[in-house]
Amino acid sequence: MMSFNRFVTVLMLLTASLFCQAGVVDVEKKDIDNVVTDNGSAQLESFIKAVKMMDSALVTQYIAAGIDVNSKGSSPYPAVFYASAKNYDDILQQLLDAGSDVNQSGRGGWTPLMVASLHGHQDIVAALLEAKAEQELKSADGMTALMYAVAEKNQTAAALLIEAGANPNAIIGDEKSANKSVLSLAVEGGDTAIIDTLINMGAKVDGGKDRYQPLYYALQKNNILMTDRLVEAGASLQWQDREGNNYLHLNAAKADRQTVQYLIEHRVNYGAVNRAGKLPLDIAAERGNVENMSVLIKVSDKLDRVGAYFNSVTAGVQSSTAILLESGIKINSRDRQGRTGLMIAAEYRHHHLVDFLLAQGVDVKYRDKQGRTALMYGVTANPSKIRIVNSLLAAGSDSEQEDNKGHSALMMAVMAADSVDPAVVELLIANGASSTMAAERISQQITVAEQENNSTRLQKLALLAEIIDQPVVATAQ
Q1: Which of 235, 208, 210, 240 is nearest to 223 (CA)?
Q2: Is 361:340 a contact under the CB 8 Å cutoff?
Q3: pLDDT for the residue 37
Q4: Percentage of the chain with pLDDT > 90?
Q5: Is residue 248 part of a domain?
């Protein structure tokens, strides 16, 4: 599918090529006679208009009178461009015979060969090639004539260009940059005839560590037949990009289940970890693709499934969390920090997941390696979320429980005064949280805020102090 930028470019080209079709060229004989002497903008405008209108007789008169066929005047494109864009082969030949520069570019770096290839004007393409049009010139979009023909699935034009020596391994933009090749464009477009032609003419089916491999686009389209064709031509399914992603990583989230199954059957490593520390199963879980998860779960060991469980909870994806629990993961499983899924869900403010895990029987009293409970994570989330704190308290969380440093949930709330919801403090106190230590901490923080002249923080602390019955005496400034 054509990108928005390319759509705008093509629209501009079509506008240019169709401009003035409804008008009538009205040029007096004296204007023709004056061409040689002044070759002014009015004459050039009328000449280019005659080309656009396919007025061969008038074009002949202008050429005979000595018009500069390569001058654009105020037009964004030269005359030869319009003849190529509109498929006017007779006028194109007149212009070529008169010495038109076939490699002269117009706006956006577009050449006559590019626009003819884009529209699939095969006779024009052939004529321009015979006139020695340069094939490897690139537009401002970094595209060659062959790329435009391939992108628009113009098979005959593409074949003519390839037969004339177009580079089947050209890359969009700078040749040293990471971008799509001609073959990748063809695969993305899905034209098997052009793909076969390019492969037969030596197009590389593999190359580099960037995500512009032809196989990448075949798999993204879930086109197994095209994938097989590329593999037969030498493409490797064992490829990895610079971030350590293999084709399962890149397709776990969006590809069809059949594509993921195909990759597993062709021994793409489902246990590979990319540089972000993620397995293909992790990626599918984070994106909520339960269809692909069901395929990957069958080949994954318990440790990998536990990791995916924590990733799904972190991402807040209930569907993924549910299918992993159904696969046999224990709901109170802990990560390396000793956190349960409930703690993680509370920390990341996923209230729907907190409620789901509570309904599944998760234990609210578990503590991590620092002695923190899910309630503490909920209170210190940035910002805190009263719905989560309320759900955890209703499920039996102990508001008086302290962590390894002797901090209760209320103390943590006071320490996180900038992000805590005052309603959370009220809720904790209403559920029996002792306020003595918290009141002392607030007094200390108020003193610091006064010294720093931090009025915003002072107001927040004053509100919390009022909630726990700690009077605040304003200090004279």
Answers
A1: 235
A2: no
A3: 42
A4: 75
A5: no
Nearest to residue 32, comparing CAs of 54, 50, 16?
Answer: 50
Tokens 């108020």 belong to residue: 446
Phi, psi of 373 (to 5 degrees): -100, 170
Per-residue pLDDT at 50: 96
* Chain centre to alpha carbon of residue 301: 31
Which residues form the domain of 7? 1-165
Distances (CA, A) of 425 to 149, 355, 393, 416, 421: 66, 21, 13, 11, 7
Cβ-contact 78, 106 below 8 angstroms? yes
Cis peptide, bond prior to residue 280, ω within 30 of zero: no
CA–CA separation, 235 and 213 (whole Å): 9
Question: What per-residue confidence (pLDDT) applies to 7?
Answer: 43
Helix (H, G, I), strand (E, B) or coil at 349: coil
Residue 244 resides in a domain = no
Distance (Å, rounded) from C-alpha 292 to C-alpha 279? Answer: 13
* Cα distance between residue 312 and residue 219, in whole Å: 24
Assign residue 83 the CATH number of its domain.
Answer: 1.25.40.20
DSSP element (H, E) containing 315: helix 302-315
* Residue 466 belongs to some domain of the structure: no
Residue 326 CA to residue 297 CA, distance in Å, equals: 11
Q: How many domains does the chain have?
A: 1
Phi, psi of 261 (to 5 degrees): -60, -40
Least confident of 238-242, 317-321, 414-418, 425-429: 414-418
Three-class DSSP category at 412: helix
Distance in angstroms (rounded) separating the CA atoms of residues 171 and 185: 10
| CA–CA distance, 88 with 78 (Å, rounded to integer) | 14
Give pTM, 2 decimals: 0.79
Asked whether the beta carbons of 226 and 195 are under 8 A apart, the reply is yes
Residue 83 Cα distances to 91, 100, 125, 127, angstroms: 6, 11, 11, 12
Alpha-carbon distances of 231 from 5, 85, 112, 216, rounded to whole Å:
32, 38, 36, 12
250-280 confidence digits (pLDDT tens): 999 999 999 999 999 999 999 999 999 999 9
- What residues form DSSP beta bridges with 402? 408
Query: Of how many residues is the chain composed?
Result: 477
What pLDDT score was predicted for residue 129?
98
Residue 161 maps to a domain? yes
